[in-house]
Design brief:
The complex is a heterodimer. By secondary structure, chain A is mainly beta. In chain A, about 5% of the residues lie in helices and about 35% in strands. Chain A has a single domain, classed as Neuraminidase. The longest helix of chain A has 15 residues. Chain A starts with a helix and ends with a strand. Helices cover about 80% and strands about 0% of the residues of chain B. Chain B has one domain. Classes of the chains: A mainly beta, B mainly alpha. At the A-B interface, helix 2 of A face helix 3 and helix 4 of B.
Chain lengths: ~425, ~140
């Protein structure tokens, strides 16, 4: 879209959206976020990222840390996994096959595509290796290809699990391998019809017996019909041996990344909540996930706040909805989560890193950064702290969009950027 | 003879009549789909009415163009002016209705249904005026 088109659309959107929302976001972090009244003008607020090249620029990191691009020219990197020998696996792909059902889908699809990379998804795993530990990943090789929009990655012993958009697969892995030794074996099929939210997040339980798979909803708020939502908006617990599954938690609109908490073994998720209810609704959240819990979607959000767009309503389900642990703010689009380690430096030792892809449904964009949510006694404590910023510059141009974040036990944060197709590595200047 | 001709207030080009009737049918279809969605919550009706509205807007835009052309070609201005203004009102309402229908799921209700009713009523009046203006009153 050229600049004039963009300005025209932005101006029209602002005009028609009525209530101006160019103010700073309210304090919407933590356990008790302020939730304003629902609002929606004739057009949703839309500010789409305007991509630009990094050039000589780099993302901004806290003082005492260094950021470096360790791989570029990837094909839509989403999630990463640090292997025991320090090699990094990168899942690359672009999924989804949602048909355009309404004129809106045609128009919005065209506009939103302007804010993403035009590169074709790789449908592969790329392996990065820094053999001598100097911080330069001199080897970049395809570990496995022919996959179908791989996203979630987990290693349990000598088994590498990969969550394609339609199936959970496993590879045999031995340390040092640079290429998969064969075709993957299917553990189980995953719900993949339509795949409006196609990413399949993955985490393994601490004992490796179970795999947790995040399965997003098939719509924003049931606009593809209730029948499209069978087996959607939930987290599966899959038995690693048999491939049998059960719903571990439901009503979770789009669980885009999962992590198991060291020590407690609790499952945590970052979840993207619904759009088109205003600039400050509904907060995306970070939460421990209770077994058998229902988290509201589609009938309600943040506990018992009813969303009448989902019909017929279900008051019983609304009454049972769990309030999430921690609001990350509305529309930030959290797509990555990783528990930190003392090796990340004292200030960032206890907590989680969250990759925020950035908003579209907000006239004053938010997200477009990696934040650190400090923990105390195993629970979030305090506001998020910016860890990697500068993806969206002061000039209004967007140079990168963070997705997956992974902590390298040697003291580095690995950030996948699916706009500039780069893997960033953030390290402390003082060796821990 | 001259008296009889004067009583023909203006003539509607057949193409204009087709476009006008077509857009009425499309808006009417949208209204019926809206009613079905409002009663059943079955989302496909909502998809149908979104496309029917889009179709009504495209055909209606051409009807509006024809009306504007007729306005400049007609010696009798009052009827065509009312007709064109009504068509314009239908089109603007239909456009707002289409934006309302772009809201997700039941967020388009009940505003979308109400707008569809108003659009159909206005489209009926426009068609009535257009066709009534052609009659040779007093000649029969």
């Amino acid at each position: 879209m050229n600049r004039l088109d963009f300005l025209a659309i932005a101006a029209l959107a602002t005009l028609l959206a009525g209530c101006g929302s160019g103010n700073a976001p309210p304090e919407q972090y933590g356990a008790n976020p302020q939730l304003p009244a629902q609002q929606r003008g004739l057009l949703p607020d839309m500010v789409i990222a305007r991509p630009a090249a990094w050039g000589d620029r780099l993302p901004t990191v806290p003082q005492g840390y260094t950021v470096k691009a360790i791989a570029t020219d990837l094909r839509i990197p989403r999630q990463t996994l640090v292997l025991p020998n320090g090699d990094i696996l990168v899942a690359e792909g672009r999924g989804g096959s949602a048909p355009k059902l309404k004129p809106k889908d045609v128009v919005a699809g065209y506009i939103k595509a302007k804010g993403t990379s035009p590169v074709r998804g790789g449908n592969r795993l790329t392996l990065l290796r820094d053999a001598n530990g100097d911080g330069t990943y001199e080897t970049k090789t395809v570990f496995a290809d022919g996959l179908n929009a791989p996203y979630g990655l987990a290693l349990v012993g000598d088994t590498l699990y990969v969550a394609d958009q339609d199936a959970l697969l496993k590879f045999h892995y031995s340390v040092g391998q640079t290429h998969a030794s064969g075709k993957p074996v299917k553990v189980t099929d995953l719900p993949s019809a339509i795949n409006h939210h196609w990413t399949k997040a993955l985490a393994a339980s601490a004992d490796g017996r179970y795999l947790y798979v995040g399965i997003g909803s098939n719509s924003n708020i049931t606009e593809r019909g209730m029948t499209a939502e069978v087996e959607r908006a939930r987290i599966w617990q899959v038995d690693a041996q048999t491939g049998m599954h059960r719903a571990y938690a439901t009503g979770v609109r789009n669980p885009t990344a999962l992590a198991v908490q060291p020590g407690t073994g609790a499952l945590w998720a970052v979840v993207n909540e619904r759009d088109e209810l205003g600039p400050d609704l509904v907060p995306d959240y970070l939460s421990s996930i209770r077994e058998g819990g229902f988290y509201g979607w589609p009938w309600s959000y943040w506990g018992q706040h009813v969303d009448t767009r989902a019909q017929p309503q279900d008051p019983e389900k609304v009454a049972s909805a769990i309030v999430p642990d921690y609001s990350l703010g509305s529309h930030v689009a959290a797509l990555g989560v990783a528990f930190s380690l003392p090796a990340m430096g004292a200030k960032f030792a206890d907590g989680v890193f969250v990759g925020e892809h950035g908003s579209w449904n907000r006239s004053n964009p938010v997200g477009y950064k990696v934040v650190f949510v400090p923990f105390h006694d195993g629970h979030p404590a305090g506001n998020p702290i910016d860890f990697v910023t500068g993806f969206r510059g002061d000039d209004g141009l967007t140079r990168g969009r963070p997705v997956g974040v992974t902590v390298d036990p040697r003291g580095a944060l690995i950030v996948a950027d699916d706009l500039s197709n780069t893997i960033w590595r953030v390290t402390s200047n003082t060796r821990q | 003879m001259s008296v009889a001709i004067d009583r023909i207030r203006w003539t509607l080009h057949p193409l204009n009549a087709v476009l006008l009737a077509g857009s009425l049918a499309l808006f009417l279809g949208a209204l019926l789909s809206d009613i079905a969605y409002y009663r059943s919550y079955a989302i496909q009706w909502n998809n149908f009415s979104s496309w029917l509205l889009a179709g009504g807007l495209v055909v209606g835009a051409f009807a509006l163009l024809c009306g504007i052309v007729a306005l400049f070609r007609s010696r009798w201005r009052a009827w065509p002016v009312a007709y064109v203004l009504l068509l314009l009102a239908v089109w603007i309402l239909g456009f707002i209705d289409a934006l309302v229908h772009a809201r997700d799921a039941f967020a388009s209700m009940p505003a979308g249904l109400v707008l569809s009713v108003v659009a159909v009523v206005l489209a009926c009046v426009a068609l009535w005026i257009a066709l009534a203006g052609m009659r040779e009153r007093g000649a029969s």
